Structure formats: structure tokens, C-alpha cells
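User: Show me an example of a complex going from sequences to C-alpha cells.

Assistant: Sure. Here are the input components:
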Amino acid sequence: MQFIDLLIYVSIYCKMNDIKLSSNSTHSSTILPVNKFYFDYNATTPLAPEVIQTINDSLKEHWGNPSSNHIEGSKAKKALEKAREEVASMISAIPSEILFLSGGTEANNLVLYSAVVHFKKWVISQPDSSFSHMKPHIITTKVEHDSIKYPLLRRYFVEADVTYLGVENLPTSVIDNIRPSTCLITVMLANNETGIMFSVAHIARLLSEVNKKREAEGLFKILLHTDAAQAIGKLPVDVTDLKVDYLTIVGHKFYGPRVGALYVKKLGSGAPLYPLLYGGGQERGYRSGTENTPMYVGLGKACALVQENVLEYSSHMKKMRVYLERQLKKAFANYIKINCVDPCNVSNPEECSIPPSGPKQTHFIFPRLPNTTSVSFYYPEVPVLENSGVCSFHAKRSIRLSVGRETTVPEIEAIVIDIKQAISKALDPLKLPTSSSTSNST
Amino acid sequence: MQFIDLLIYVSIYCKMNDIKLSSNSTHSSTILPVNKFYFDYNATTPLAPEVIQTINDSLKEHWGNPSSNHIEGSKAKKALEKAREEVASMISAIPSEILFLSGGTEANNLVLYSAVVHFKKWVISQPDSSFSHMKPHIITTKVEHDSIKYPLLRRYFVEADVTYLGVENLPTSVIDNIRPSTCLITVMLANNETGIMFSVAHIARLLSEVNKKREAEGLFKILLHTDAAQAIGKLPVDVTDLKVDYLTIVGHKFYGPRVGALYVKKLGSGAPLYPLLYGGGQERGYRSGTENTPMYVGLGKACALVQENVLEYSSHMKKMRVYLERQLKKAFANYIKINCVDPCNVSNPEECSIPPSGPKQTHFIFPRLPNTTSVSFYYPEVPVLENSGVCSFHAKRSIRLSVGRETTVPEIEAIVIDIKQAISKALDPLKLPTSSSTSNST
């Protein structure tokens, strides 16, 4: 069995977009039914039953056009505004700060675009001609989601100089890299691959001081964005703590539907926003297009569930993640490393170049999401992780396992056995612990 | 009773966005329950029961991330591709020419953006420096949807000269207005307010000749787009007849969900397309963002229903529309005019300035959608229609009524009585025909 087949079989996120499910990829060691092996909750979650019910009801009841001045329109509009309250409430925002969007990708693109446009307009408005040739500068990390990374790389109207920071010196490195032309800092709240979390609240505190000075100097007020896609639903997220200007919300990462929302601080009078799409003027003109009411109503429900139960979800996920990591350690002993937790023990420092690097050293420690584990195996090269604070040696041998609200102990035991069998087959003979040591302890 | 209350009450589309449902807006002459009075199917339709069921099943079954290389991802991807086939099949396209999008607004914005970007890239690529200062030019009509109108008016990266054509001399006026710098012609297939239809196929034939000459002259090949939002589901729409480069599809106008699709002729090797949103590279990189699978699966179902039943839908709608117009004529006699059908009989030619104008003259006649009637009353001024081939006198006195698959004869009779009572109350005394003449004939 190829390691690649293992990855496919055990439903591991592996970011190898060119690999398709091959028809001859069979595996006979099934312990639970195949579709029970889902350890990819960071890619997407199923919808909560309550959310499905809400969407289903809404498809029947709220089909009117919220812009229409009649009873069907009014029903839809009320439902939409209730959903907006639920989204806002989850993150301690107010409803008028919430913009409904097609998803996280649109939200992230919109923030980048808005910051750049706002900076350009600011430059033009300055009487001081020394600003006139200033190109916008954006600070971000090397580990952002593609919907931040690619607009910055490719998009012709997000023309900006970009500083990509490694994760090891956050948050101070953010402040150290500010330039007079900096217009936006965008740092995710939690990384999708390793689960490590960044202290955006800390960045906000430091930035607040910087912005005070900049105001006195007549410089552009730097905007702060965080993509909270992976954090929401796993840990409490509160904009009054984070003090960001923008925060991205993605429904399908927390048992909601495939739509998103963007928090914009004091939208209208606060953080600037420029529409990417023009048309009927929906969402106060910031996002035209007849609203996908049933999906937004479903998003509202998913947010309400999170607000009510996030600590319970979080606690369950953490328990499962801890058990998963313990079982993996039992099964693979020294042949496995939990990334961003275990010390790096690559003998050749060249191979582990991210500081603090070298043999036997401990990697920087970040808090982690309760549901995510990134593990490196010492055997096969698996091209997965890059720039995530994991040395290239380990990055090439890593997989991600993310648990969800439904994950159970038997599932974890089954998947650990499954991974072990697959690896044994791929790379016989291995000196792994005997199988008796992998069973039945919590 | 205010005329405005009538508009709200009878669920007429009236494009007065600043008017809210007032709490003291009461009406006692209810014949059918209020929510039965729905004559606004051009604003949005309810979802077909089969579509609701499909979405509901899909929310449970296809929640996986279509980009994930595992069983849940694969199930979602298959469902998505089946839906793409259904959308393509409805308009005689091939699946690879269909791009799933959040809605018609995104589709229309994307076309405008792509044409402009493509033209700019073409200009840069020309060795002949005489092209280098050429600004893109777009030809459209005065009656396009806001999602065409406003991007052209407001959007800073759709920088183009625009020619807005009146509808009276289409399609020849399109060709007459072509310039060397013309990059796009966008003309809707059917107008949302009056229901009049434009011969896009005719424009395509004429344009094909023009493009042959332009090719010989080394000029940019002009692209052709049609927004088919209002036509699909009411009449057969076939891209092999229309021969357009782009065609906009909007689910919620034909009993589908609030998402859309864009037909792009030979996408990848044919009509150019440039992404507005970057990220995970979904939709072959043309539209990033995890796909809203259940909604697209629902769109596919709505398209399959249309493909199977469009002639039946069309025939029913037309029957209802004919009956509605007959009942209105009985109720209002000479005090009503069916726009784009009846001759204009304003005595002062100044008041009816769109050619052919003047007293007693017949307006140009276009084919109309089977479901839409735009009627003008001679009494109150209702600020509704502009530029739609209706003189300003009539435009100010017009309302739109659009019927749907469920519209019945009793509903029509009820709404006609309702409108008549409301107008009588608003403008007593009127010399309307007696109520006996409005009842019971098909």
C-alpha cells in the first residue's frame, strides 16, 4: 500500500490537489465503516442537525426577496436580520457590523481589496506630495489561508508590497516590520494545518500604540484583520477582546452552511470597506446580490449553537485530541513527533532550519486549537506542511488529524490501528511497539 | 388609502427602496389571504418542492469538501459535477463551460471585469503603439439590471467608456455604435420590468460579421454577454442558438436557490475569464472558495425541472398573463395601458418622448416574456419605470405584475378587484366600469 493511499483512505487532509481517488485504492483492514473515518474537520464539518432543520424551514418560509416591499419580502428580511443578530452576538459585535458574504474567500479578498483602495484614496487626499508615490504595504504571515495568500500574489488590483512573517517571532515581528506605507496587518487567529494560535489581541494592543504615534505624524492608520475561520466553534472568539477592524467568519468550519460573514468594526463610520460587487445595493451597498436568505439563516443558527455550547464542544474536542495523540505515541513511540509540541530531534541541524532549530531543541510553543494535531512520521516523505513552524524534515513527513463534535474513542482507536497497519505495510520491517500497547486506555 | 399602500399590499415590485412596510398600513378588502397575493415572480420565486427536497438531502449527504481527497469529499464532488451537467444541459452547453457562482450579481460583475482586463492585456500585448492609449468601450442598454448598470457606473477597476442604448432600435443600434475600442456588448435576454425580449441571437449574427472584419484589421474580438436571469424558466434558452460568449443564470428566478452560474463559451480556451476572487483554486481557479455544494445541487435540480417542463410552465404563465390583462382591461377600460403593447395615447407629444412618440402612435413592439405585464394607469403617478421603452408619462404611472407556475384564475380575479378598489379609494370619483364586468370569464 502506498502512503498516499493511506492518506486518502484515512481521510487525512493532505493538500495534494493533483491526486484523485484511484479506483484500485482498496484497503481490507476496515474496523469501522469507511465513512466513519473522518478526521478532517478542519477542511469542513458536517452540518449540525439543528442547522439543517433551520435551513429546510427557511427554504420554505423565507423565499421572498428581502428587498421587496411586501409580505414575502418582509418575512425574509426579518429572518435575515435575526440571523445577523445571532452572528454578531457570537463574537460580541453589533448586528450592523456584520456583512453576509458567500464565504471566507470572499471575506478575505474583500478586506485586502478594501485596505488597498482605502490607502490609495488616502494617498490621493494628502496635501503632502511626499506620500504621492507610496505603494500600499501589507504585513501577513507565511501560513495564512490561500484566500489571503493568493490575492496578494496574483491579483492585479491588490497591488501591494507584502511582508510575509514566519510564525516564530510573532507578535513582535509584526510591529518591527511596520513601514510608513503599511495599511493592513492580517494574521489568522488559528492555523488550519497545525492548529497553532496567534495572539491577535496582543498584536492589536501593540498596534494601538503604533497607530497613536502614526496619527500624530499624519500617517495612515493601520488596519488589523484576522481570519477566524478555524478558531470559531472551537474556542470563544470575542471582538471586544481581539480589537480587530475585520474578522472573517466561515460557516462550514463550525457545522454551519457554506456561506460566511465579515465583521467590520463600526461598518459605515469605522473600518473602511469598498464593495467588490455592485448591483442592487444589498447589505447596505457593501455587497450587492439578492441575499441567500436560507443559508444566512442557517449560519445564524450555527452561530447560536456555538455561542451556547462552545465550551462543551471545546472540551470534548480537546479530550479526543489528547487521547488521539496518546494513542499515536503508543503506536509509534519515537517514530512520531507532534508538531509544535515535541522537541525537534533531527540530527542534522541543516535539515531543521527554522529557529530555534537544531538537534534536541524544543520548537517554539504556541497554544493550539483543541481539535487539531499535526504529526510527523520519521519514515516516508509526505509533502504537506510548509512554513508552519515545522522544519522541512518534519514538514515532509506530516499529516493533519482534526477531530470534531462527534469524534469518539473507538474511532480514534480504529484510525490509529489503521494508520499503523498502513505504515507497516508500506515500510516493512519497522520496529514499532506491538499492537497490544495501543488499545483501551483513556 | 395611499397608492403606495396598494403597491405594498398587492405585492407589486416598485423599486422604491426607501419605502418600508408601515405598521398602520391596513387594508380591509381582503378576498384571498394576504400571502396569496403574490404577483412578483420576477423579483424572486419560491423554491420548487423538488428543489427543497434535493437541497435538504444534499445538506445531509454532500457536506464534504469537494477539494478533499477522501470519501466525503468525493461524494460532494460527484454531486457538484452532476449539478454542473444539469445546468449545462438546460442551455445546451457542456459542463466545462459552467461556472458556479454566488449569484447573478457576481456573474455580471465577473463578465464586465473579465472583458475589461482582457482588453487591457490585449492592448499591452500589441506591437502597434497606436492602441496603447485605448480605453475599453462597452455597449449595453439603458434597461439592464443594476448588476450591470452599477459596476459600469461606480467600479473603479471596470474603467470603460460605456454606450447606453435605448431599446427602440435594437439590435442594429448595437452594431452602429461599435468603436475600434469596443470590447464587450452586454444585452439582457428579457427585461425584468416590462418583460420585453431582445434578439440577442440577431446581435450575435451581426457581431460575427463585424468580428470577422475586425480580425482582418487586427482589432480586438468583441465579446458578447447576455443576462438570461429573467428568460430562463419562462422560455427555452439555448446557447447554440444565442451564440453568446457569456450567459448569466440566476437560480432564484426559476424556482431554484439563491446561487447562480455563468456560461462561458469554451471556458479555458475560448471566451476569456479573469478571477475576481483568489484562494483555494476551486472552479478550475476561476472562482475560489469552498463550493456551496447543496445550493449548487439544488440549482442543478431546478435546471433539470426547467429542461423537462419549460414549455408547460411557459404555456401556463402565458395563459394566466393573458387572463390577467383581459381582466385589467375589463376593470379599467381606457384608464389602463399595457406597456409595450398598447398604443400610446398621451395627447401631448412632449410627454411621450421616446420614439416613435406622439399621440395615438403605436410603440415599437417586442416579443414579451409569457409571465410579465407592465401596466400604466392614467391616474396616479407611480415612480417606477425608466428607460424601458415606455414614455415618461406612462412610466410614472406603471406597475409590474408577474405571474408564476402556481398563479390561478381566482388569484387573478381577486387581485384585479383589489387594485380597482384601492384605486377607487385613492382617487374617488372614477368612472370605472361596474364591478360586474370584471368577474368570471376565461
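The lines above are the inputs; the final block is the predicted structure for all two components together. The domain at 3-46+310-438 of chain B is CATH 3.90.1150.10 (Aspartate Aminotransferase, domain 1).
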